[in-house]
């Protein structure tokens, strides 16, 4: 009988040690992820709630009938409007529209809501680095231009980029591999 008790005690001890090891591993991993995410500038929640909608110093005034963000140049920031090329006449100095998060992504699952933040907060699906790149490089509407196109063509003067924190970094980077 004492052999059975010793075997069960050993099994119990192994289970407890295994549980503690997994708990400590997950705790350390979560701390590392939080430390990494806290170093990202601008933070994901800023990008989700404000930053991805409109360029810096432009104000999001609502959503148009197609679901696009309406951005107004309330501070009269100088804006270039090219007269030739693919973006001729598409850089309005007063009002621009930009597609919302998720539009323009290749074949998103039906009913999927996306977020710029990491860790799938509030049940949304976090965009991968490739999805973020594709999102800022493409426009889902023929009437609007992509965020990268706005940065590269609608800045204060020709050959001067527009400022859009969090988006500039992605547009000026090579495409992610996956």
Explain what the structure shows.
The structure is a single chain. Helix content is 37%, strand content 10%. It has 178 residues and is of the alpha+beta class. The chain folds into two domains: 1-38; 44-171, no CATH class. The strands form two sheets. A three-stranded antiparallel beta sheet has the order 1-2-3, with no helix packed on it. The longest helix is centred in the first third of the chain and has 37 residues, at 2-38. The mean pLDDT is 83.
Short characterization:
The protein is of the alpha+beta class and 178 residues long. It has five helices and five strands; from the N terminus they run ααβββββααα.
Set down the secondary structure blueprint.
Layout: H1 2-38, H2 44-51, E1 59-63, E2 69-72, E3 95-98, E4 114-115, E5 125-126, H3 129-137, H4 147-153, H5 168-171
Parallel strand pairs: 4-5
Antiparallel strand pairs: 1-2, 2-3
Which bin fits the share of residues in helices? Answer: 25-40%
Helix-strand sequence: HHEEEEEHHH
Strand segment count: 5
Number of domains in the coordinates? 2
The overall average pLDDT, rounded, is 83
Alpha carbon gap, first and last residue: 58 Å
* Biggest β-sheet strands, sense, barrel: 3 strands, antiparallel
Placed side by side, the strands forming the largest sheet appear as 1-2-3
Q: What portion of the residues fall into strands of 2 or more residues?
A: 5-15%
Query: Which structural class is indicated by helix and strand composition?
Result: alpha+beta
Helical stretch tally? 5
Give the overall shape, derived from the CA principal axes: elongated
């Amino acid at each position: 009988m004492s052999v059975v008790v010793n075997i069960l005690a050993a099994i119990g001890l192994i289970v407890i040690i295994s549980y503690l090891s997994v708990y400590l591993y997950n705790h350390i991993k979560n701390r590392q992820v939080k430390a990494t995410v806290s170093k990202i500038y601008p933070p994901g929640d800023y990008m989700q709630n404000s930053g991805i909608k409109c360029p810096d110093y432009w104000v999001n005034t609502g959503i148009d009938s197609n679901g696009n963000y309406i951005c107004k140049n309330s501070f009269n920031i100088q804006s270039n409007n090219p007269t030739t090329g693919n973006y001729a006449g598409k850089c309005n100095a007063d009002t621009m529209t930009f597609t919302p998060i998720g539009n323009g992504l290749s074949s998103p699952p039906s009913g999927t809501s996306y977020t710029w933040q990491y860790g799938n907060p509030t049940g949304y699906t976090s965009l991968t680095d490739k999805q973020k790149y594709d999102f800022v490089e493409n426009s889902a509407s023929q009437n609007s231009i992509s965020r990268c196109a706005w940065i590269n063509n609608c800045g204060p003067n020709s050959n001067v980029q527009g400022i859009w924190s969090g988006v500039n970094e992605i547009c000026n980077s090579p495409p992610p591999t996956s």
